[in-house]
Amino acid sequence: MENTAQVGIIIVSHLDYGASILRTAEFILGPLSDCCSISVELSDQVADTVRRLDDAAKLLDKGAGVIILTDMFGGTPTNLALALLGKLNVEVVTGVNLPMLMKVFTERDKSLEEVARQAHEAGTKGIVVAGSMLRNKTKANEG
Amino acid sequence: MENTAQVGIIIVSHLDYGASILRTAEFILGPLSDCCSISVELSDQVADTVRRLDDAAKLLDKGAGVIILTDMFGGTPTNLALALLGKLNVEVVTGVNLPMLMKVFTERDKSLEEVARQAHEAGTKGIVVAGSMLRNKTKANEG
Predict the structure, then answer these.
(1) Are residues B119 and B100 in contact, defined by beta-carbon separation less than 8 angstroms?
(2) Interface contact A20, partner B, CB < 8 A
């Protein structure tokens, strides 16, 4: 049976970084649905943030699961997201950047596992040392 | 002769994403100097943004050059940054994420080329499909 629901998308980050990258994706792609950002501040009670995350993941799971993108492995936002693994149908991908987020939005009709795989691929391939790359291309063309 | 100046850091992005990730780095690392973010909006005149970028790169180059981190290859912010290559002592790394930015701030006493290499490495290694990784670890421990 094919799953016709879209994967839900949550960004968990320190401060308002998640909200900001989400606004940028929306600025480029147009209005986006079934997504949210959750900000983790030092002053927040951990229990309160876990509850907000848990609520959001349940709300956004329309049958295809939820991908949680976090700012950095080892940080509190990531650790709180990891606590949901095994309890809800979620996958956590760390180190969110714009290429990853754009890919997740355009491929969210795939399975959760596949969306996570593509998030990883788009995020890493989107990191390019541009000057070095362009110099190498120029050398190759001259060689 | 050893270069004692630090590499300058600029983030160029759509909207306020650059300012937001910079605030997050500052929240974690404490006050940061010789860095700035430049926001590119559709309504901005391209010439004006190029001038702001050019001014910032000149101001932040204390002798060790400037690394420009951008949100996404192919986007206007990246294209404007690439226009500075060859004219000023800058390197451009696309797909900025928090692990990359943290690394750049902690390694900025290295050469510009080395900072760019480490930015790429930290950015890509910081992208992890955490659930999949943890499940594989569990399997390996059981196997």
Answers:
(1) yes
(2) yes
Considering the entire predicted model, what is its pTM? 0.94
Question: Closest Cα to residue B105, out of B29, B18, B12, B17?
Answer: B29
**Best residue of B16, B22, B24 to probe chain A, by most A CBs closer than 10 Å:** B24
Q: Which domain holds residue A45?
A: 8-142
Q: Residue B58 corresponds to which tokens in the numbers above?
A: 């000149």
- For the segment B78-126, what is each residue's pLDDT rounded down to a tens digit? 999 999 999 999 999 999 999 999 999 999 999 999 999 999 999 999 9
Alpha carbons A102 and A123: distance in angstroms, whole number: 9
Whether B31 is in a domain gets the answer yes
Mutate to test the interface with B, among A97, A102, A103, A139 (most CBs of B within 10 A): A97
Q: What is the pLDDT of residues A87-124, one digit of tens each?
A: 999 999 999 999 999 999 999 999 999 999 999 999 99
Is position A3 within any domain? no
CATH label of the domain that carries residue B138 = 3.40.50.510
The residues, any chain, with a CB within 8 Å of residue A93's CB and separated by 6 or more, are A67, A68, A69, A70, A100, A116, A119, A120, A123, B127, B128, B129, B130
